[in-house]
Design brief:
Bound molecules: heme C
Strand content: under 5%
CATH architecture: Orthogonal Bundle
Structural class: mainly alpha
Oligomer: single chain
Shape: globular
Radius of gyration: 16 Å
Distance between the termini: 48 Å
Order of helices and strands: HHHHHHH
Length: 128
């Protein structure tokens, strides 16, 4: 009986909170509209993005996005981030995590968010 109720609760949770069943990046990839990064391939934007990352993101995601050793905070040096549609990353920075474990960065000017995204998508490169 308990097992059955547990099963039902899990099914409900998967329907109500689809983000629990997949990574935030996968979730964003499904629902965020495509956006082009106005700074794609721009080295100065990448450098500005690195500084912004150190100030705003490094405390959780670790130096150069390598992770902080806690399973709940994903490293950002993955192919999921590298190959993501820029629109999906823009969505994550605008909305944060639905579980509120990551805050929204909507307060940063849009140009700064694109600089951060330029930096993020340069991270996985050496692993390819
Ligand atoms: C307070 C800690 C915290 C801060 C600060 C933070 N994040 Fe996060 N971030 C998280 C957590 C926790 C998750 C996982 C959330 C989830 O899966 O629901 C996450 C997930 C992500 C993801 C999705 C990764 C994936 O593979 O699913 C990206 C991209 C990301 N963060 C980028 C950033 C950027 C860029 C910044 C700075 C502008 C930032 N984060 C600041 C905690 C943080």
């Amino acid at each position: 009986m308990r097992g059955r109720i547990g099963h039902i609760l899990t099914s409900v949770a998967l329907v109500v909170f689809p983000a629990l069943a997949e990574s935030l990046m996968q979730h964003a990839g499904k629902i965020a509209p495509h956006r082009a990064n106005p700074y794609a391939g721009n080295e100065r934007a990448r450098e500005a993005g690195q500084k912004l990352f150190d100030e705003n993101c490094g405390s959780c995601h670790g130096e150069a996005g390598k992770g902080n050793g806690r399973a709940k905070t994903p490293p950002l040096t993955t192919r999921f981030v590298h190959d993501a549609d820029p629109g999906a990353l823009f969505w994550v920075l605008r909305n944060g995590s639905p579980s509120h474990s990551m805050p929204s960065f909507q307060h940063l000017p849009e140009a700064q968010r694109w600089q951060i995204i330029t930096y993020l998508q340069s991270l996985g490169e050496e692993q390819k």
